[in-house]
Design brief:
Layout (H helix, E strand, L loop, with lengths): L7 E8 L2 E2 L5 E2 L2 E9 L2 E2 L2 H10 L5 E6 L9 E5 L2 E11 L5 E9 L7
Antiparallel strand pairs: 1-4, 1-7, 2-3, 5-6, 6-9, 7-8, 8-9
């Protein structure tokens, strides 16, 4: 992948659970960092391969490795789309590129 292919701004968010008035945990998302990435909706053979890992997989997001690289506990925001991480693969383990396999969350984008 070439650096010029990274044309989408993606926000990496971390889950910072808070307590509701009754003492229960409520998901609350905080922005970790914003990075350049390539958001790719999977089709054809790539989609079938991804769905062998997770039946809901529909989006692949390659990006450069960074110290705040996402894990499966993070989510990505791309515009109004919420992309939940399923699998994060460090390409060749040299900390240069990572691939994130995601599902697209169909709910409304909540504040946080």
């Amino acid at each position: 992948m070439k650096a010029g292919d990274l044309r989408h701004r993606v926000i990496i968010q971390v889950n910072t659970p808070t307590r509701d008035p009754n003492g229960g945990k409520v998901a609350s998302w905080a922005t970790s960092t914003t990075v350049w990435a390539s958001v790719q909706t999977l089709t054809g053979g790539k989609l079938e391969t991804a769905r062998q890992i997770d039946g809901e997989a529909s989006v692949q997001v390659p990006m450069r490795y960074c110290s705040s690289a996402p894990t499966i506990d993070n989510r990505l925001l791309f515009g109004t789309r919420i992309l939940e991480s399923i699998l994060v693969v460090n390409e060749n383990e040299r900390n240069i590129w990572i691939q994130i396999l995601c599902t697209e969350h169909r709910g409304a984008l909540e504040d946080g």
